[in-house]
Amino acid sequence: MKSGLVISISGVDGTGKTTQAALLIKYLRHRGYRCIYSHVRFGHFFSVPLLALARIGGFTRIYRTTQGTEIGMHFFGKSKALASLYPITFYIDTVINMTLKVHLHTLFGRIVIADRFVYDGLVDLMVSTGRTDLLRSTIGRLLLRLVPKTHVKVGLSLPPDLLRYRREELEFDVTLDERQLLFTKVTEELGIPIISTEGSIGAIHNLILEKLWLDYGRV
């Protein structure tokens, strides 16, 4: 397997990305590969002022689960200014995140296991701004240019009803069905192979390994 490789595991919340990332790192490290886990989704920098403004203006809603966990959801599509400005700051923030959490590690020959990736960011951006055409927009194209050339991509999927059953906080996610539909749209257009996580954890792990073997030979 090549050094400096990025393996991205994408999917909406509750599909098992973190579990599979941990298994993959354990598998590769056991075989002598230098791996690092990276959660690429979060890390706001230039977007912070806009997010604060959105919360003050009522474009961000906070939901509290029965366990007391607070969940924030953005509805920037209700403001033309926010829907236009946020993708720009989001892109800048993603450049910073990708540089620090992905590209620097690949420069030193590490294999990066990315839990969520640029594709997930695109889906998040579509949902929060209401701009479902972002994939073909200038911002969408710029975001996709951040994807390394040495890259294996895998998408995990599960029906929304099962996701809500698995994760209590997802019962409060009013955007879950839309998010799943947009994730399916993005993966189809970008040719990202999808693995259903309705099976056992071990079986899903083996399917991910098969994808790696297909692209880079047995590891």
Index terms:
alpha/beta; 5-stranded parallel sheet; about 220 residues; Rossmann fold
Architecture blueprint of SSEs:
Elements: E1 6-10, H1 17-30, E2 35-39, H2 48-57, E3 60-64, E4 70-74, H3 80-107, E5 111-115, H4 118-129, H5 138-144, E6 151-157, H6 160-166, H7 176-190, E7 194-196, H8 201-216
Parallel strand pairs: 1-5, 1-6, 2-5, 6-7
Antiparallel strand pairs: 3-4
Q: How does this model look, in words?
A:
The chain has 219 residues and is an alpha/beta fold. It has one domain (6-43, 83-216): 3-Layer(aba) Sandwich (Rossmann fold). It has helices spanning 17-30, 48-57, 80-107, 118-129, 138-144, 160-166, 176-190, 201-216; strands at residues 6-10, 35-39, 60-64, 70-74, 111-115, 151-157, 194-196. The strands form two sheets. Strands 2-5-1-6-7 form a five-stranded parallel sheet, with helices on both faces. Helix 1 packs across helix 8 (201-216) and helix 3 runs antiparallel to helix 4 (118-129). The radius of gyration is 17 Å and the shape is globular. The chain starts with 5 loop residues before the first strand and ends with a helix.
What would the average pLDDT be, to the nearest integer?
A: 91
Helix content: 40-55%
Distance between the termini: 7 Å
Find the CATH topology. Answer: Rossmann fold
Shape: globular
Order of strands, widest sheet: 2-5-1-6-7
Number of helical regions: 8
Classification by helices and strands = alpha/beta
Major β-sheet annotation: 5 strands, parallel
